[in-house]
Amino acid sequence: MEVATTKLLQWFNELRSRVHLYLHAQTLGPIRAENGGSQGEDQPPTQHGDSEERVIFVNAPHQPAKYKNNHITTAKYSFLSFVPLFLFEQFRRYSNCFFLFIALMQQIPDVSPTGRYTTLVPLIFILSVSALKEIVEDIKRHRADDEINMREVEVLRDGRWQWIQWRAVAVGDVVKVHNNTFFPADLILLSSSEPQGMSFIETANLDGETNLKIRQAHPDTANLLDTAELMNFRANIQCEPPNRHLYEFHGVLRETNKQSVALGPDQLLLRGAMLRNTRWVFGVVIYTGHDTKLMQNNTATAPLKRSTLDRLINTQILMLFFILLLLCILSAIFNVVWTNANKHGLWYLGLNEETTKNFAYNLLTFIILFNNLIPISLQVTLEVVRYVQATFINMDIEMYHAETDTPAMARTSNLNEELGMVNYVFTDKTGTLTRNVMEFKRCSVGGKMYDLPIPVIDDEGVSETCCELIEDIMEGRSVRDSPNPIDKKKAEHAAVLHEFMVMLSVCHTVIPEKVDNSIIYHAASPDERALVDGARKFDYVFDTRTPHYVEIVALGETLRYEILNVIEFTSARKRMSVVVKTPEGKIKILCKGADSVIYERLTPTNPIEVSDLDQEHIDDFRDATLEHLEAFASDGLRTLCFASAEIPENVYQWWRESYHKALISTSNRENMLEETANLIETKLTLLGATAIEDQLQDQVPETIQSLLQADIKIWVLTGDKQETAINIGYSCKLITHGMPLYIINESSLDKTREVIIQRCLDFGIDLKCQNDVALIIDGSTLDFALSCDIRMDFLELCSACKVVICCRVSPIQKAEVVDLITSNKKAVTLAIGDGANDVAMIQKAHIGVGISGVEGLQAACASDYSIAQFRFLKRLLFVHGSWNYSRMCKLILYSFYKNICLYVIELWFAIYSGWSGQILFERWSIGLYNVVFTAAPPLAMGLFDKVCSAETHLAHPGLYATKNNGESFFNIKVFWIWIVNALIHSSLLYWLPLLALTQDVVWANGRDGGYLLLGNFVYTYVVVTVCAKAGLIINSWTWVTHLATWGSIILWFLFIFIYSNFWPVLNVGAVMLGNDKMLFSSPVFWLGLILIPPAVLLLDVTVKAVKNTVWKSVTEAARENEIRKSDPGVIFNNQDYRSSLTETARLLKNVKSVFSRRSNAASRVNVEVELSHGFAFSQEEGGSVTQTDVIRAYDTNLPKPGGM
């Protein structure tokens, strides 16, 4: 009764909510999408579809339309989808399909010579182990997803703020997001703690841009600053359906009894972005979960990836199946021929029975008999080995990041060996290569270079600051009235230093915030924040900003500068200027930007009226600054030049009127503003230059150099600006100074096609090889380049370049670039990133590696492997990748080898058994061959074998490249060589014992041996031979490999001793009774044991000895040098060794040099090579909220609202 009552109340509350929404919708009236939501025809709010506009009611707990919840998942499986998806994945492997067929055939009575369950039970075991592994790995993904879904945010419900989990956030909820936290869904900004509803957001997790972006609430909602006002806020929002366009949004806000207003991208706060420099914002949820733009840009479901070895094995198994089928058909035919020839002479065999004449019956018998040529144990061995290998990755202390307490994590084990085959690395920039932290490092002022102040401790333990720049200022001021020419130069230099430091403190759009007697700087541009922080270290402190002036504290003196005009930075202008009135009443323009644009605006003569300062000194000043800029750039630092000029009052008044006219122009405004800015940004006086470090992650340049030496091509895919991306290319040594840059920024498909084709023609015959050239392309041009008609030309051009950098690219474009390689080249791709914008490319690449960032986990959750730092990629590939690749190749080849060695003997025995399908070996011996007697060697080599030590692999990246230079451990040729080798061994292992037992041998018990004794002879020699073969291919012997190799042989001897004595104590193994005594008492057996396995392996030993002496591989040479405690690196430098022993080593030497040589094509291409001066500056462009609007809105003397 209570349950029924509860359900009734729930139903009633639901009905009441829906009635409330309906009445609410009628009150608000109709909505139209166009023209800002003007009056139009009624549109029922309850209609909703994926392709329809959605209507969202603010502060409504239940929406009339059904929207997706805010739960997101990057896992492969759900509870319902696991079984079908898992079975689909497993039966994509031809081997599993084959064994399922065999298992079904064995259920037919009297068909199977090996029993009904010898295939079915192992198959079920294999699938169970695989299922368990997939479940364990997917549980880890679900837990990582839960870590995000269970984050909490404040939501306004039932008239109060409640902390709820992200997954419970619903469309229509009003949420409060605090500073330095991520947005839980896509929101419309209602209001914020900042003036005029402004807020700063960081979108590095979405588009890779390092600068902050400004979002501003609509004026109609910007005054909703407390809970009561929000609760009384009644409105609905009509907006477009979910889509993946990060920078586009169209919506309409309609309040009760108010005019509809348009909403755009400046009111949109995206999931994955972070609130910065803003205490709090109020927003209403419009898209949740997989409807958010972030998730729309990602692959809908996690892909089921397979390794290259898996795909290659699949095709070879198919080939083996056809060969097996041919053998079975031939055997069935031979059976018919033999039966017809002997049915009268051998009447006692019952050859006239129908079953002996049934071709199909005999065919199925042989299929079942020979099915073990394809190793059923291979899959379970692979699953177990891969799982343990993944555990080794997780436990590697060398890839543990102590600062964040983050270990490496293998989220899938199916791609372990793929890590050793990587040809392309696609990497994000922000957060992956860089820390997204800008730091002021050095400056050049008046032709002299200065470092940051150095803290020193005097004899009394008091900390002081030693600053050469401040000392020069103070010294110059002290001698300003001196007539001495040297003193006058010091005074002039001090004046330049002071003006330079003032400019650092004034020429920017930074907002100061005073907190507990300290100042925190908030800036949309990380470069500007670094500059202001740098000035503070020199005791020039930016203190106050109001809409009309700024105040700085310069060496203890408070100075006020009136802000007259701000000419904003754009990528085209490459500069930013501020017109100020100084405390002395002078009007000055302060201009900072790229050296190329600043230098062309300098006055030809120095405006400082100093009689002894001649033109030569001016040129030296400029030349010295250029030299310093080159030095900064060579260190990978971001540079800016600073210059100023004094403007007469009448000139400024005239210019201000012109600038105002340009601002209010309704046509051609941008060009007019640029022309007007050029009028005043002229005849400048150079002050100096700054060097800012965009801090790289630890050991990024070293890691990139190692990857390049390993013949891995590196492409940088970033959403950041072109200048910033190029600058990072220099700082991480991906681009070298003097390297030609192909910069492709075109506005149409035709122009893009023309440029790409011309570049390809410029390369000429060198188009097919790699050239020392860097290709840089922006996102809009990339769209054209990836179009169908020039896609392949673009691919050829990229392949001919050493470096490819794609700038301003969207998440989908990143995935498309990765797909360009994966779909058109036989290459293994790896994508690495840390942000949500990297998920699409991580899922598209063969291997996805996520950086477990301090703030974001989306990339790590969607990845196959996660690491804490980019530098760990080197160990992941060179150590674990190389080890796992060689291990898995050996394991796979050895598994096929050992099966063919034993089971092809059934074919040779069929010749002597009248093609009857009779088995030579006892059934349990056949069943335990893969499970017990030869199971340990492949496990040991798959887990513990090492070609070289970790230290050698890390020190010599060229070893990783050997797989591309003729030393591949696994390919079609190698596979079939092993198959042929196994066929030779199987024939020797059958015919040699048969020859030894040609004459019947009567044993001590008066019996002769029979076919089963021959089978035990052969079986013993097979076990010894395949175990010894394992010993030949194992490189590193440990107690585990010794135990696995020799222990397997001992196990067989123990088994035959025990099993031959089971019957009649146990009703099993009757046919084996006494076989141990006959075997162990036979001199023939022991003599064969000494002679036959070595004879079989003689060819293998000979080939290996000759190869390691005459055609020694680089890998083998490195291993031998390591064993001899010599430096393995000598093999890359010893010319005599390379020329006399191996062509492969010469090729590998070229791997090291190919990245440092200059291609002949580089001198022919139509590219101007300029020495880089390292200019880069990050700031949002094109937003509706300009930087001028921002600084005019702030008065840091006023308190901010509390938002309660």
Automatic annotation (TrEMBL):
Keywords recorded for this protein, A-Z: ATP-binding, Cell membrane, Golgi apparatus, Magnesium, Membrane, Metal-binding, Nucleotide-binding, Phosphoprotein, Translocase, Transmembrane, Transmembrane helix
What Gene3D superfamilies does the record tag this protein with?
Calcium-transporting ATPase, cytoplasmic domain N, Calcium-transporting ATPase, cytoplasmic transduction domain A, HAD superfamily/HAD-like
The chain positions of domain P-type ATPase N-terminal read 57-120
Family named by the database record: Belongs to the cation transport ATPase (P-type) (TC 3.A.3) family. Type IV subfamily.
User: What chemistry does it catalyse, as a reaction equation?
Assistant: ATP + H2O + phospholipidSide 1 = ADP + phosphate + phospholipidSide 2; a 1,2-diacyl-sn-glycero-3-phospho-L-serine(out) + ATP + H2O = a 1,2-diacyl-sn-glycero-3-phospho-L-serine(in) + ADP + phosphate + H(+)
Name of the protein described by the UniProt record:
Phospholipid-transporting ATPase
Q: Which organism is it from?
A: Dinoponera quadriceps (South American ant)
Q: One of this protein's GO BP terms?
A: phospholipid translocation
E.C. numbers: 7.6.2.1
Transmembrane regions: 317-339, 359-378, 891-912, 924-944, 974-992, 1012-1031, 1043-1063, 1083-1103
**Ranges for domain P-type ATPase A:** 150-211
Residues in the active site? 428
Q: Which residues form the P-type ATPase C-terminal domain?
A: 860-1112
Residues that bind ATP, according to the entry?
A: 428-430, 528, 569, 592, 638, 718-720, 808, 814, 837-838
How is this protein annotated for GO cellular component?
plasma membrane; trans-Golgi network
**According to its UniProt record, where is this protein located?**
Cell membrane; Golgi apparatus; Membrane
Q: Spell out the PROSITE patterns in the cross-references.
A: ATPASE_E1_E2 (PS00154)
Cofactor names: Mg(2+)
Q: How does it sit in the membrane?
A: Multi-pass membrane protein
UniProt xrefs under SUPFAM superfamilies? Calcium ATPase, transduction domain A (SSF81653), Calcium ATPase, transmembrane domain M (SSF81665), HAD-like (SSF56784), Metal cation-transporting ATPase, ATP-binding domain N (SSF81660)
Q: Record keywords: Transmembrane included? A: yes
